[in-house]
Automatic annotation (TrEMBL), chain B:
<dbReference type="Pfam" id="PF01799">
    <property type="entry name" value="Fer2_2"/>
</dbReference>
<keyword id="KW-0479">Metal-binding</keyword>
<dbReference type="Pfam" id="PF00111">
    <property type="entry name" value="Fer2"/>
</dbReference>
<feature type="domain" description="2Fe-2S ferredoxin-type">
    <location>
        <begin position="7"/>
        <end position="82"/>
    </location>
</feature>
<dbReference type="InterPro" id="IPR036010">
    <property type="entry name" value="2Fe-2S_ferredoxin-like_sf"/>
</dbReference>
<dbReference type="GO" id="GO:0016491">
    <property type="term" value="F:oxidoreductase activity"/>
</dbReference>
<protein>
    <recommendedName>
        <fullName>2Fe-2S ferredoxin-type domain-containing protein</fullName>
    </recommendedName>
</protein>
<dbReference type="InterPro" id="IPR036884">
    <property type="entry name" value="2Fe-2S-bd_dom_sf"/>
</dbReference>
<keyword id="KW-0411">Iron-sulfur</keyword>
<dbReference type="GO" id="GO:0046872">
    <property type="term" value="F:metal ion binding"/>
</dbReference>
<dbReference type="InterPro" id="IPR006058">
    <property type="entry name" value="2Fe2S_fd_BS"/>
</dbReference>
<dbReference type="InterPro" id="IPR002888">
    <property type="entry name" value="2Fe-2S-bd"/>
</dbReference>
<dbReference type="InterPro" id="IPR001041">
    <property type="entry name" value="2Fe-2S_ferredoxin-type"/>
</dbReference>
<dbReference type="InterPro" id="IPR012675">
    <property type="entry name" value="Beta-grasp_dom_sf"/>
</dbReference>
<dbReference type="InterPro" id="IPR051452">
    <property type="entry name" value="Diverse_Oxidoreductases"/>
</dbReference>
<dbReference type="GO" id="GO:0051537">
    <property type="term" value="F:2 iron, 2 sulfur cluster binding"/>
</dbReference>
<keyword id="KW-0001">2Fe-2S</keyword>
Amino acid sequence: MIQDNIDNTAGAGIPNPNRSIPVATGPTVGQPVDMVGARARVSGRVDFALNAVVPGMTHARLLRSPMPHARISSIDTSAAEKMPGVVAVLTAADFDRPGAPARYYGAVLRDQPVLCGEKVRFAGDPVAAVAAETEEQAAAALLEIEVDYEPLPAVGSVAEALAEGAPLVHEKPPLPREASYADIKFHGREGNVCTKFQLRSGDVEAGFAAADHIFDNTYHSPAVQHLTMEPHVVLARFEGERLTVTSSTQAPYAVRDTLAEMFGVASSKVRVIVPPIGGGYGGKTYAKFEPVTAALAWKARRPVKLVLPRDEEFLSLTKHAATIRMRTGVSSDGKLLARDVQVYFDAGAYTDISPRLIKNGGYSTAGPYAIPNVRIDSYAVYTNLPPAGAYRGYGVSQAAWAYEQQMDEMAEALGIDPVEFRRRNLLTEGERFATGEIMREAHWRELLDRTAEAIDYDTDRRVVVDEHRVRGKGVAVILKSTITPSTSHAAMRLDADGSLQVLTSSVEMGQGAHTVLAQLAAQPLGLPVSAVHVTEPDTQYTPYDQTTSSSRTTRAMGGALTSAAHVIREKLLKLAGDLLEVSPTDLELADGQVVAKGSPGVRMSVPEVFRRTRTGSISGDGEVITSGGLDPETGQGIASDHWHQGAAAAEVEVDLGTGKVYVRHVHSIAHAGRVVNPKLARLQMHGSTVFGISHALYEELVYDEGILTNPNLSDYSITAMGDMPAQLEVEFLEDEGEAEIHGLGETTLPPVIAAIGNAVRAAIGAPVRTLPITPERVLEARNS
Amino acid sequence: MDRTDEKSFSCVVNGEYTVLTGADTTPAIVALRAHGLFSVRETCGIGVCGTCTVLLDGEPVSACILPLYALDGRTVQTAEGLEEGGELSDLQQQFIASQAFQCSFCTPGFLMSGQALLDGTDGPLDDEAIEDGLQGHLCRCGCYAAIKEAVRECSAARTCSRAGARG
Ligand code: FES
Ligand code: FES
């Protein structure tokens, strides 16, 4: 339907049909209220899934393959079954029989086995699971399971996977799931190519022919781990064929649907409950360990709890390693004329959400720039490595690492100031993006100017401190989409005591979702935040929401709640209007009172309206359903219902002797539209900065012949307090009056990485095109 | 763990005489959580992230690598014991005011080392002293700036309850 609107040759572009619900700052929106439940958080009493206990509960452990690619010739569990405390041992043989669960699952392609049968596809692929009375007993039983493997040649990288005659990770392309997602299309599925996304806009060859300079560079980002401090936790129990799962998931409804399909039951037979979770960052999106824990509970006929050990967390999911070859044609006066990109995302052994990520990461390589001629081919490639999936930044970190490094390299070659060079090309209001869609609320220039100014970019861009130390400054600017189309529903109930019960399936994972949702729900009803109770996600009661991801909750779920609050408001004002003999349109709500506009003496408390009208409760619901989609051949259409815009600037000091990089100053800025809670929003941006520093300088999963060599926090470093820059600032760009809400969860992560990269380049006079920027790479770049 | 290895260890936990059971080498975190002290949480399990920090006779230690026998006859404090008469400690209150947490999985660990730092020093603390005192604590959500601010503010006000001294 969207394709009908597309005229790939017209300059007019594709108008965006989506609108959000603008909100104004008021008594609750825009206020720095404390996080809901703050007291429980500082007294250590938050009830994480980790704490969950039910009567008769057993404990699970998984046996994992030691080899990256092998055929399983036999599995013998007889000795393990006799071990003390063992309740059940589960293998592939338990599946796909009458009455038994299906063995393959996946959000998009059904290619991931709950437990491997014929072969293993990465070192760490689960082959058996044990439930026992204690975790120690389960672990002891694992040692008694005998598995015979016949090793197969493995592919340890995208290059190996795409080589002539490479061994195949999946012998034949796995089948798509019937109920996948509307935005996902498939392309070029053969060999080890899981799928690809392509975009064709304008005439790339003509663009290159007209260019004065063509730059051709390749950039690399490694796989890294989410490292949530709370691991994945699942507690599954059956009552007859009814399955209840308590899980640390970001996607309760996606988990419910996966489990219902797996057990061949109606989705109403599966109930997923999500307590607050100890960090997500994308790593807990879609079904992860719920299938194996539920299957074990099914076999054990007892409740089973799995707490994933830390070393196995490292094997659960990663950010996609990416290699991006970017050719860009520029005129000598600094206009981008053409861009041709090949993006290779390493999907690992299973598809997970790669088809969406390579699409979003793919079109994002055009950057926030008006480039008339663009060709992008973005591939998800299977390898014999742990699966890659959603990760804070969602492909944009890798894309921006390439395009923002190249912008600086091109600016230098052209002799144009890097900020000025960007300004000449940044998308402005009403211009076409590479997908053909028309950009609205374009603020990139302002964001860039502000961030450059914050670090005084124009002066002292490179400073020699002494013979060993140099300083450099860098900037970066990005655009990021959100899942489109997507669906969020919410319901709420105002009770006679003036309290509001909010039913939402948005997950509280530390981002403060439940606090900002309470603020948004309270305002139209004139309630204080303390009168609002936000229910934890429970698919039996809380309405459908696609996922808590993609920086979408405050806008999408917030919009659904705002609509629901207005439904209740209308009903309440109608009741009160009849009592007060005032037209509902002349009434307003404040401090739990219904008040006539202009006559503050004419008023009635909300509880009194309920009592006098014998009303028990007032319910309302709301929804936000966005539309869009891209043509599978041309990548033209609506990629995102709105766009996230961010920029960052960094100053670093480099020790030329050791190659070590010290970050001195980071400033980041995002277009927020309307900030609902400045205190929590700031922390989201701080978090993005800390991740950005980590990905720029420290993090990398290192594999040796397909085996992960650093699956622990002593060999795998993340940003610590001492690594923080002395100066750290975050800024929001807000709009006046009633304004749209733009998510802030990820927007400044990608530009922080790229800004640090550009600062290092400015300091040492040579680019480091491979992340992370380790001391060795700095020294190597300087010496080359 | 074989039940026959089980022993009893007596210690004072959050001011109350307590008997914990387990083997000599059972990690303290396992016994403390089994005792219902869910503020003690494991992230790394190898003593490098600080999430599981408790105070042993007022000193921060990693409960994930601490054998249970080391608690015998000693005083243990966890985040559950920071409140006094149902009131949050000054540092806890300041953590809320400074919004020094997101998911808060790491928070109890930071609070325990932060309290030990405040108990062992006088007057306002500078950034270096705070970084030193909280070294070895990781927060993946990235709340470092707010955590530093909370400890700094508390040290400047210096009415912080001396939780470590209370025992
Ligand atoms: S869990 Fe004990 S130090 Fe990390
Ligand atoms: S608040 Fe989430 S890890 Fe610190």
